[in-house]
TrEMBL record:
Its EC number is 2.3.1.274. GO terms for biological process: fatty acid biosynthetic process; phospholipid biosynthetic process. This is Phosphate acyltransferase. It comes from Paenibacillus xylanivorans. Pathway: Lipid metabolism; phospholipid metabolism. Its main location: cytoplasm. The keyword Cytoplasm applies. Keywords: Acyltransferase, Cytoplasm, Lipid biosynthesis, Lipid metabolism, Phospholipid biosynthesis, Phospholipid metabolism, Transferase. Homodimer. Probably interacts with PlsY. It is an enzyme of class 2 (transferase). One of its GO terms (cellular component) is cytoplasm. Belongs to the PlsX family.
Length: 331
């Protein structure tokens, strides 16, 4: 198995991607890992880390797509960008999966223009895991790849999400819910009203509408929504979690008594923070592409990159893309 990593994408690149790649290559000796990026920047980082694992190599790419680049123009003009080169390697069969923490819009564009869309899929979806209080998590899609969607797109999201949780995470019969403003079938806007019956007709375990307040309590295993509503949900949850921990830190450092209480509670607080930490989940697959592409968080650290590799390995081993393609096309 070979996994390519866009070494120059992300807020902490290339240091974080190198760190994560080394950790992954060390743990999974049966997996070839290729860092795609500027050799002049990557090699010193690899040398500084000590002995480079034998299954870790570098593919030079002279350009970088930044967070401020316009996605379509960047992908079309920067032919030697690390993200584009990695996508081309995936398309041409030089790799089994690709990981990037770079510009989300550019990665989706590279997925469509370079890697290619799966037959029968109109809109690929970004599908990250949202932590839940029962530690099972919910796979939510789409959370930002497409701002607008049709009912048929949401139905495809439901099917792809269900297959992902089966194949990659071992849930035999995932519960699929539709993000809405109420649980009754007739609730919502025109999009959700038309998507509801389409989801009911699919060979999935559709549990109906799910309200945002019930997402973290494990109301479903797969949450279906359009990219606009989904991205607002994700950013709201991330902001709330960050604000809660900031308030806790403020309160626990306000007096000697609270500092002593914090010292006693520290193991539990660390466990809570870990439960809500996106880096433990690795990344979000772009479901609906012809090959496996995983989007890691823009601020991913080495741990997040390593977990993205773990996630990609499991998906490849369980033939996720092939399973989705077979279900969608009926072949």
């Amino acid at each position: 198995m070979k996994i390519v990593i866009d070494a120059m994408g992300g807020d902490n690149a290339p240091a974080a991607t190198v760190e994560g790649a080394i950790a992954a290559a060390t743990e999974w000796a049966d997996t070839q890992i290729v860092l795609v990026g500027d050799e002049a920047k990557l090699e010193p980082l690899l040398s500084k880390s000590g002995a480079k694992p034998a299954n870790l190599t570098v593919r030079h790419a002279s350009e970088v797509i930044g967070s401020d680049d316009e996605p379509v123009k960047a992908v079309r003009r920067k032919k030697d960008a690390s993200m584009v080169v990695a996508g081309r390697m995936l398309k041409e069969g030089e790799a089994d999966a690709m990981i990037s923490a770079g510009n989300t819009g550019a990665l989706m564009t590279a997925g469509l223009l370079v890697v290619g869309r799966m037959e029968g899929i109109e809109r690929p979806a970004l599908a990250p895991m949202i932590p839940t209080i029962d530690d099972v998590g919910v796979l939510a899609l789409d959370l930002g790849a497409n701002m607008d969607a049709k009912p048929e797109h949401l139905a495809q999201y439901g099917l792809m999400g269900s297959l992902y949780r089966q194949k990659v995470q071992g849930i035999a019969s995932p519960r699929v819910g539709l993000l809405n403003v109420g649980t009754e079938p007739g609730k919502g806007n025109e999009l959700t009203k038309h998507a509801y019956p389409l989801l009911e007709q699919l060979p999935i375990r559709f549990v109906g509408n799910v309200e945002a307040r019930d997402v973290l309590t494990g109301a479903c295993d797969v949450l279906v929504c359009d990219g606009f509503a989904g991205n607002i949900l994700l950013k709201s949850l991330e902001g709330t979690a960050g604000a809660i921990f900031a308030l806790l830190k403020e309160q626990f450092s306000s007096s000697l008594k609270s500092k002593l209480a914090a010292a006693v509670l520290m193991p539990e607080l660390r466990g809570l923070k870990r439960k809500l930490d996106y880096t433990e989940h690795g990344g979000a697959p772009l479901l609906g592409l012809s090959r496996l592409v995983v989007k890691s968080h823009g601020s991913a650290d080495g741990n997040a990159i390593k977990n993205a590799v773990r996630q990609a390995r499991i998906a490849v081993q369980n033939q996720l893309v092939e399973s989705i393609s077979k279900e969608i096309s009926g072949k």
